[in-house]
UniProtKB/TrEMBL annotation:
Keywords: Membrane, Transmembrane, Transmembrane helix. The keyword Membrane applies. Pfam families: N_methyl. NCBIfam families: IV_pilin_GFxxxE (TIGR02532). This is Prepilin-type N-terminal cleavage/methylation domain-containing protein. InterPro entries: N_methyl_site, Pilin-like. The keyword Transferase does not apply. Residues 228-248 are annotated as: Disordered. It comes from Comamonas antarctica.
Amino acid sequence: MEYSLRVSDRCVFKGGGTTGASQRTKHRCRIPRPHAHARGFTLVELLVALVAMALMALMGWRGLDSMMRSQQYTQAHTDAHAVMQTALAQWSADLDGLMALDNTQAIAWDGQALRMTRRNAVAPEAGALVVAWTRRTSQGSDQWLRWQSPPVRTRNEWNDAWNQAGLWARNPSAEQRTRETALFPLANWSIYFFRDGAWSNPQSSDASTSAASDAASAAAAAAAAAAASTTGTTTDATTTNTGTMAGTTAASGTAANAIPDGVRIVLELAPGSGLSGRLIRDWVNPLRQNMRS
């Protein structure tokens, strides 16, 4: 390739001078070099780079999504566990507060709901409470529910609250729903009472309870008959007091027998609710435990 020298381009000789001064002197000239053209990426290289960046972005998104899902699962599990602990604590508190009142039922299971008569821990002077536990469809799924009545002070108020608890477990009204609390999803549950040294179905123990009540009534009647047949004022008074004490003792024994020695609950937790599997919880009657100790 030939290059033309401009006027400003000069060749410098070792001996000094300018171009044309001496052809015999070896010289060197500064010859301009052509500029190299900048080379860019080809289309294939750009496509490969875009694919690599897309794969890296996808891997980053999958990792972030996995972390978010893990956090949500952990939070749901923690919340479900806290709700279950609170519900079971309330369950134990209701059983610990059972009251065996005259002409009432302390606890009863009808196959759908477990109803209890318990003390009012917040305001004892206001009266007793009737509470009920059941499993029923609520909020679109089967839930474990608890219902509580207003304080009751008379037999009629207790009877009305007891009947309302039974109706609430099957076909609740709008007013009854306002007094219920949905606890957590529940697939199934079952109740067992510990009586006569064995666990049994609560409904099968009704006959033994009735027999105990009949025995207590017979004992009271026999004591009254013995008091009536005794002669003498002093003897009559003494025998009457004895008969009254016997009747009171029999009634107390019947009231104590109304509360079982223990209650077992078996919960089948619904899958997908944060917790799953089977949970068994036993309650021991503290009065029975103290009597045996």
